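F.,

This is the one I mentioned.
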């Protein structure tokens, strides 16, 4: 995980997290050459958390392999937090995955996203999207359209990553009503 992604993920867990949380991470695979030097997001989770890493392929950091990123194998409202970092730019229809995140997040729980706001193409296997400040409200409206009520708690474009020129993260935290 690159430096700023880990920094913002750690800040999310420190600010909003609670011991014993049930957390689902979408796109949890630690891919060789993708910046593992900073560690995995699960390392920043609150103590005694149950952490479930989900990805489309087996690998380091993956607890559940999902056959379909648009239909996750979890019950409604089962997670205190659903998180994803440096993944949505690689999901063809990220808005459908976002609705699944809304579905499995319990009322009062949090959704955390970190995705690039800019940066060069980096396919894994595709690289489709970049996110800007208005994405927070657009995804909130999309959740409402899908029957889920969210409120944006915070959103921002982070400072440039000092180790990766031309990269800035878009970060958003929602609370499910």
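My design for it:
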């Amino acid at each position: 995980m690159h430096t700023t992604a880990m920094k913002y993920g750690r800040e999310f867990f420190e600010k909003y997290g609670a011991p014993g949380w049930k957390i689902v991470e979408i796109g949890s695979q630690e891919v060789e050459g993708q910046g593992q030097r900073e560690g995995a997001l699960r390392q920043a989770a609150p103590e005694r958390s149950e952490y479930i890493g989900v990805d489309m392929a087996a690998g380091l950091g993956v607890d559940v392999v999902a056959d379909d990123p648009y239909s996750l194998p979890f019950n409604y409202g089962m997670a205190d937090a659903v998180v994803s970092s440096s993944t949505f730019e690689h999901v063809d229809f990220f808005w459908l995955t976002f609705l699944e995140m809304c579905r499995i997040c319990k009322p009062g729980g949090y959704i955390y996203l970190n995705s690039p706001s800019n940066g060069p193409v980096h396919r894994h296997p595709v690289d489709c999207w970049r996110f800007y400040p208005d994405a927070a409200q657009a995804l909130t409206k999309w959740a409402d359209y899908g029957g889920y009520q969210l409120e944006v708690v915070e959103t921002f474009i982070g400072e440039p990553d000092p180790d990766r020129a031309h990269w800035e993260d878009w970060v958003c935290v929602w609370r499910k009503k």
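Residues 3-176 form a domain with the Rossmann fold fold (CATH 3.40.50.150).

Talk soon.
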